[in-house]
Amino acid sequence: MSVFTEETRERAREIIARYPADRSRSALLPLLHLVQAQEGYVSPAGVAFCAEVLGLNKAQVGAVATFYTMYKRKPTGDFLVSVCTNTMCNVLGGQEVYDTLSAHLGVGHDETTADGTITLEHAECLAACDYGPVMTVNYDFFDGVDSSTAVGVVDELRAGGRPMPTRGARLCTLKEMAVQLAGFADERDGAVADGGPGEPTLRGLRLAQQHGVSVPGFDPNTPIRSKAESDKAAAEAKAKAEAAKPAPAEASAAPVKGGDGASAPTGATAVAEPGGATGPAKPVDATRPAERADATGSTPRDVKAPDDKSPQVRTAETRQPDASTAVPDAPGTKVPADGTGTAPEARDARSAEAAGVAANPPAGDGKPAGDEAGAQERNLTEAKAGTDADGAGPADANETGAQK
Predict the structure, then answer these.
(1) Angle at 233 (CA atoms; ends 227, 237), nearest 5 degrees
(2) CB 1 within 8 A of CB 8
(3) Tell me, what's the pLDDT at 49?
(4) What pLDDT band is residue 319 in, cutting at 50, 70 and 90?
(5) In percent, how much of the chain has pLDDT > 70?
(6) Which of 15, 117, 148, 322 has its CA 20 to 30 A from that of 182?
(7) Is the CB of residue 158 less than 8 Å from the CB of residue 109?
(8) Cα(289)–Cα(268) distance, rounded to whole angstroms?
(9) pLDDT at residue 82 above 90?
(10) Residues 101, 107, 112, 116: what is their CA dihedral angle, to the nearest 10 degrees?
(11) Long-range contacts of 61-66 (CB under 8 A, 24+ apart)
(12) Pick the residue with more confidence: 6 or 105?
């Protein structure tokens, strides 16, 4: 029986409905937060749940869940306390804060207290160098902490309190926070009523106001246009630009005649005389593409695929177009031909793409990373012993282990 409630399944359907029908895989990230909101971490059952509702295999889901650090792969406390120990915060005392908390709580990195309240971790960077040293509780900031204030925060959390972050909304548990990351509102009373920017964040703005610094031509009262107004303005500008373009010159389909009635040599154009008579042919500059196109009767333009095709298909057709649509002398194109010089029959690029997909089915189902390490341990043991079950040598043993 599934560990996930019907409410979770309903929310999963709501998340998937936010994305186009053929792009439902994009819902994987919020779905992982959703299962973490119920169990407190992304368990093997959570991986299987996401794979089930999205039609993926567990290996595909596990690959994403193990890539991002915000997805926890083992039970995590109600409050995730992260202490920055990167360069700036470390210089200001971040490492001392972490060491003090580790000794006070009796846990190390990525470990949880016995009461299940707090999980401690050191973070490489929390992107708040101007507030260092900093720590976060479920990703809400506590700025300018020292060993004493950090211990006071965790003690209040363990006592059931909710200390107010320096910046941001009121604290919530890890599960409550995961619901918000899945895309659902925080329904607690006054959940987003507190918080505000810190003084270091506003320092640049205050200096600009003090010294009268602003962007040239900036008017703070300029209204921001809606998307509909912007689209309308863009369409009008495009129509105006199209109307301003000169009309293309029409090329004559009739052969050019010389003064004696004979055809003019290739690479020449006729010169109109007063009264409608045609004068002697004028040589054409072969370095000018427009004149060369008119003279040869071809149209040296790039082959343009329909806009509804994918960029990959469009690129492939432009480089190697079908015989029925290709312009033989188009720059950068060449119609393939067999040994007799005959061009192949026209082919549908979409059909070829579909055939390629059908010939390469997705990988089969697999367990998420970390579920089973027995096979790896067995291979390592055999390689270390220098022989496998068949009595092969060390080199053969390594090769056999890799195959297994």
Answers:
(1) 145
(2) no
(3) 92
(4) low
(5) 61
(6) 117
(7) no
(8) 14
(9) yes
(10) -80
(11) 61/28, 61/32, 61/368, 62/366, 62/367, 62/368, 62/369, 63/369, 64/28, 64/29, 64/32, 65/32, 65/368, 66/368, 66/369, 66/370
(12) 105
Cβ atoms of 133 and 89 closer than 8 Å: yes
pTM for the whole thing? Answer: 0.52
H or E element in which residue 119 lies: strand 118-123
- Written as six digits, the tokens of 211 are 């010294």
Residue 347: CB atoms within 10 A of its CB come to 11
Query: What's the confidence (pLDDT) of residue 186?
Result: 81
Q: What angle do CA 236, 237, 242 make, to 5 degrees?
A: 95
pLDDT in tens, 116-137: 999 999 998 998 888 889 999 9
CA 368 – CA 57 distance, rounded (Å): 9
Number of Cβ atoms within 10 Å of the Cβ of 386: 13
232: tokens are 């309308």
